[in-house]
Specification:
binds citrulline, about 260 residues, three-stranded mixed sheet, 6 helices
Length: about 260
Amino acid sequence: MSEGRSYRFTHTISRLPGETVVKGLRAEDMGDPDAQLFQDQVEAYVAALGEAGVATMTLDPLDDYPDSVFIEDAAVCVGRVAIPMRPGAPTRFGEAKELRSVLESTFDEVLDLDSDGFVDGGDVLLTDTDAFIGLSDRTDEEGFRALGHILADYGYTPRKVVTPADVLHFKSDCGLLDSETIFATGRLADSGCFGGYRLILTPEGEEAAANLIRVNETVFLSAGFPRSEETLSDAGFELQVLDTSEAAKLDGGLSCLSLRFHLG
Ligand code: CIR
């Protein structure tokens, strides 16, 4: 079933952070992000995505939503279909509605979750065949059921998994490297959730490197994780290292900063 659909993309959508990004949610205060530097980092990220072979779209900041730069949480995209999420943080719930007109003009179909539950895109890892959906502080059983129901129609097997305690999103701790291989932290892999996949473990102490993305032939990795870089280069992946220091201050990483999809 659609070999490579989990990482072969033609398009991305990102959103620039606005001035209010300094009010973004965080589990632990490491200081506010610098709004200008954050914007520069998102622009560099979008340029790098373009070099990986996708057409990029960059949306204006939404000042009413300090966390809206983390656009991945507001929708899940499968081919020509977009599914707005129901973000689990009250200050983020409206982001999906703000995104809707862009989704409607970009995708053939926009499908709504049939649920009062909650699900954040950051808790959803799509492989070519499976949809891992992590229950977390942001994603609940009802959200899992509703999203799993839609994704099953597109050939994905929904797999209910659990985001580790004290970890924001399932994908904070893992990223897809190819159709069979996942880069994951030991604390997540230890839960045994990745049966059927080859795992490369994130080196201890470099857990934040796990939130990587693959786009076509390029694996994007956050800067500052030399052992992860070595491990992934040795495994034969083509790496592009990007500075995500400002996103990290709000518990975000590479996957959160774009919606990636294939309009084939
Ligand atoms: C939040 O707490 O919702 C944001 N500060 C960070 C969201 C990161 N998104 C992601 O991991 N997909």
